[in-house]
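Teaching assistant's notes for section 4

Start the section by putting this record on the projector. Ask students to predict, before seeing the second block, whether Cochlin will look compact or extended. Collect guesses on the board.
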Amino acid sequence: ASTAITCFTRGLDLRKEIEDVICPANCPLWQFYVFGDRVYASLSSICGAAIHRGVITNAGGAVRVQTLPGQENYPAVNANGIQSQVLGRWASSFSVTRTKDTTLEAVGRSVSTARPSTGRRSLQQGIRYCKADIAFLIDGSYNIGQRRFNLQKNFVGKVAVMLGIGTDGPHVGVVQASEHPKIEFYLKNFTAAKEVLFAIKELGFRGGNSNTGKALKHTAQKFFSLENGARKGIPKIIVVFLDGWPSDDIEEAGIMAREFGVNVFIVSVAKPTTEELGMVQDIGFIDKAVCRNNGFFSYQMPTWFGTTKYVKPLVQKLCSHEQMLCSKTCYNSVNIAFLIDGSSSIGDSNFRLVLDFISNVAKAFEISDIGSKIAAVQFTYDQRAEFGFTDYTTKEKVLSAIRNIHYMSGGTATGDAITFTTRSVFGPVKDGPNKNFLVVLTDGQSYDDVRGPAAAAQKAGITVFSVGIAWAPLDDLKDMASEPRESHTFFTREFTGLEQMVPDIIRGICKDFLDSKQ
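Reveal the predicted structure now:
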């Protein structure tokens, strides 16, 4: 049987040598990471590689994935709307080919029942895998007035019903924006559509200014907690309904929502008239508040009358899991510092293999000023901060900085180096939104204590992976590693064995991220 995967499932995520998978439709092409041509590095998106190869289109479909040995290099080729990237030596690869019937319609035939269905049933079958935690931020200001407020409630009720709310499906809540925001009900309060529909009908109109920015900020901060029903690993969405224009600044609220990993949609109804535009603080407010200014997160309705035809397209957007670019994932929400042994026993050529390992781990992550960040410290008896988390905010610059690290040569004081990194590298970001990881690489016995500094690092919220090579004592490696020590401790006899560990380190970071995710 074919396995349904996401747009961003990578070759290294599969376990079988040959596996049939199903790619979803409408993957965002500009978000794909693809390395190579015909033979793709296992770091690549499977669906991205399949589109690049011409096996499927962006309409999705079935793909056969075959695991292959690693290559010395992977070329960059532009094909079918996707620009693949150059990659040096990588531990494993894969190829993609067509299965007998590659259309999503065929896949649908194989899993659907033969009985006919109504239009509504058909839509809900199409979104039956929809999972989202959604806050409807409705307009309760004098801008909208009582009559249009009731029409807004009817529309939100229709959207809620069509979403197919259920225990394992979408969960919704409502916040009303007016002078002061009010959370009407949380995600945890109702898990059946008819209950939600009744609760929406009972909502009272509050009036006041449309302080949408204040309400958006309040919702991003207070609404999506585990105590209030938010679920781990499920996209968080705020749908802002706006009649006219906001009476306060919503740009800052949009930034805060993105920092919290919330995907903001704005449904605007009745744009400001030419006369009213003079009252709008910022006419570009929609583009600045939504998750991404790419057209997907903004939705325009001309009036509150006759809105039924707008329900289905909005529901389809809210259930497009892979388009939720502001969701926090292990790839875009971690800080990883590499603590690199520069002692004399390593030597120049082996030191380059260590840097290759670091580069290959870093390549897996989406590095940006609001995404994941990388830092590096080299140590002997002394420590040298090669670069910090805020020095480079693009992947290209980080990889260039790694290549330019010069080998120090000297003794081995790993404990002091961990203390230095905890204080000087992680200190400035300790209150930031990203989860912190430290990867320690060493080839020998430390001259100082490692247990105390590693415990202090872990107490400061840093997850520690220890990677030992050659003569590194296993006891030291385990003393440094986070719990469970077995899954955070790695060892290879030869420096050439490092490249085989890259997928395991990436998977380990992602597992820890998901386990800790609020």
